[in-house]
Amino acid sequence: MSVRRQFPRWSSIKPLLGWSWPTFRKRDRGLEKVLTIPDLRELAKKRVPLSVFDYVEGGALQEISIMRSKDSFQRVEFHPRVLRGVTSVDLSREVLGKRTSMPIILAPTGYTRMMHYLGEYAVAASAAKQDMVYALSTMGTCSPSDLATATPEGRKWFQLYLWQNRDQSRDFIAQARDNGFDALILTVDTPVSGQRLRDTRNGLTVPPKITMKTFLNMATKPRWWANLLTTPPLEFAAMRGYDKSLFELAKLIFDPSVTLKDVAWLQKEWGGPLIVKGIQTVEDALEMKKLGVQGIVLSNHGGRQMDRGTTPLELLPEVKKAVGDEMEIYIDGSVLSGGDVLAAVALGATAVLVGRPYLYGLMAAGEAGVDKMADVFREEMENTMTLMGVDKIDDLRPEHVRLREH
């Protein structure tokens, strides 16, 4: 048998080429190659100084809590159903009475403009586009009023540390209320700051000091430093006027004397939805249920406070069984893929909070990097749910997943 040959045509060759003609359109080729959150992490590591990357990446002491959180998600096993006719997937989820595009909340993080000169502004803008909730931190480098002015659209929550000076706490609450923040997150796992050895060894300060070590690293990250030096100085925006060192500020911010009575006080002062972040036992979850808070975050602070803390994903089923549906349950810590989000929802979480993933995106490419983070999570969730035979994220149940022993 013979096959007639023909002269190759461009229309046949073009699809086989792994390159394209150069264009004048500005492109971020590194970002275009990102397929996963770990890819985004590696890109971020290349684009910021080591001390900045380590601040995001690191945890307390030996970082055992971080390793255990990652391990818990690696032990997830899905139980897919077949022949379910899933032709489209609905990822939307009700969070505090309103639908959001995905069960992902961008967690409060400190020093955010250290990662990228646009900091919270870039994150909030991306969250608004993606129809996700963004939580601004007390330790943020942008004030609630400035953020609301720059990005009036989108849902915003405000994270609060109860100061020893309750009048200052009242001021923060008023800032959040007056600028349209629709929920308050009270962080309760910080009676003192955790011992983060990477930051100590790197000599991390805010703003960064140009020591010989940082100068040598600076030489390889000129764009990051140029942006830092040509934009307004880094500051804790909610604490303007406090001319104190980080150590002195920490003593003002973290109050080891806070008790359950202070939660009740805050409910009255705020008057809106309250979420308590840093719950690590069933007993404390039940205490929050008694107080009538609207939500809790099962969290070991991303492994940044007490090392060997409770692993949120492992605690989740017990807490869900104990508190039922009377308040929303969120978890955080080492949520690094769409499958991680789905596992948490199936085991009883309303949504997850992510911090490091969007900070990787921010360090890598600013707002475009945060957009990429959201795209990665969305694509992974849609693909996994289709393979699981589930077309609505609200339909995920414990029978869809289990945690393998090892």
Protein described:
This protein has one domain (30-403): Aldolase class I (TIM Barrel, Alpha-Beta Barrel). Helices cover 44% and strands 12% of the residues. The protein has helices spanning 10-13, 29-32, 37-47, 50-57, 64-74, 112-115, 119-130, 144-150, 166-178, 197-202, 212-218, 222-229, 246-253, 260-270, 282-291, 312-323, 338-346, 356-388, and strands at residues 76-78, 93-95, 98-100, 104-106, 133-136, 156-160, 183-187, 274-279, 295-298, 328-332, 351-354, 401-403. An 8-stranded parallel barrel has the order 4-5-6-7-8-9-10-11, surrounded by 7 helices. It is globular, with a radius of gyration of 23 Å.
Q: Quick gist of this model?
A:
FMN binds at residues 108-110, 137, 159, 187, 277, 299, 355-356. Its cofactor is FMN. By secondary structure, the protein is α/β, with parallel strands linked by helices.
Summarize the helices and strands and which ones pair or pack.
Blueprint (H helix, E strand, L loop, with lengths): L9 H4 L15 H4 L4 H11 L2 H8 L6 H11 L1 E3 L14 E3 L2 E3 L3 E3 L5 H4 L3 H12 L2 E4 L7 H7 L5 E5 L5 H13 L4 E5 L9 H6 L9 H7 L3 H8 L16 H8 L6 H11 L3 E6 L2 H10 L3 E4 L13 H12 L4 E5 L5 H9 L4 E4 L1 H33 L12 E3 L3
Helix pairs in contact: 3-18, 7-18, 15-16, 17-18
Keywords: Flavoprotein, FMN, Oxidoreductase
GO molecular function: FMN binding; oxidoreductase activity, acting on CH-OH group of donors
Protein name: FMN-dependent dehydrogenase
